[in-house]
Design brief:
The chain is α+β, with helices and mostly antiparallel strands. It has 2 domains: about 10-80, Alpha-Beta Plaits (2-Layer Sandwich), CATH 3.30.70; about 85-185, no CATH class. It contains 6 helices and 4 strands. It has helices at about 20-35, 50-65, 85-115, 125-145, 150-180, 180-185, and strands at about 10-15, 35-40, 45, 70-75. It has a 4-stranded antiparallel sheet. It is elongated, with a radius of gyration of 22 Å.
């Protein structure tokens, strides 16, 4: 029953009552967070993996508990859609996330450059930059966790994060030098 590529899929179908809309939004957020992609309205797909199956099973119970309908299927073929097309959808979803990540990473680098040119080397500025770097780090880890079919985009994003880390480190060193961090520690 395996198709040529041997991929197995989990197909999740759900329908919730129109009100409250918060239940639909919560379901959508959970599916997107898990990395699911859509096939049709109300129909989501994930690669068949233990964690994905458990999450979808829990989500199905939640949907039913909210007065909705949910069904979960697993299989190697989805009629009318090839595994190649499904993988393309996953990659397109991740590409949008990697694009947004790159935009924000470039924003951090621009901020560091702006503050460096203005010679605004303060601990408050450094703290803000480090917080932004931490957000990018956590976000990239989340994207990578749901990148079931990684390609060069994940490597590019990792390289961009490394560039942000290096720029932050350089900004921190200059800030420590300018603020006299060594003097404060020895006194």
């Amino acid at each position: 029953m395996l198709d040529d590529d041997g991929l197995e899929w989990l197909l999740f179908m759900a329908q919730l009552p129109a009100e409250p809309s918060s239940a639909r939004v919560a379901m959508w957020r959970r599916l997107k967070s898990a990395g699911a992609t859509t096939l049709l309205t109300g129909t989501w797909v994930l690669p068949a993996r233990q964690g994905n199956a458990a999450m979808l099973g829990e989500l199905a119970e939640t949907v039913r508990g909210q007065g909705g309908l949910a069904a979960l299927f697993s299989g190697h073929q989805i009629d009318g859609v090839t595994s190649e097309e499904i993988v393309r959808r996953f990659r397109a979803d991740r590409a949008r996330e990697f694009d947004e990540f790159a935009t924000r990473a470039h924003g951090l680098l621009a901020e560091i450059d702006k503050e460096t040119r203005a010679e605004k080397f303060s601990f408050a500025e450094l703290e803000e930059i480090e917080d932004d770097l931490e957000k990018l780090t956590v976000w990239l880890a989340k994207i990578a966790a749901r990148d079931f079919f990684p390609n060069e985009r994940q490597a590019e994003a990792s390289a961009m994060l490394a560039t942000c880390r290096e720029a932050t480190r350089a900004f921190a060193e200059t800030t420590y030098d300018r603020e006299g961090a060594d003097k404060g520690l020895s006194e």
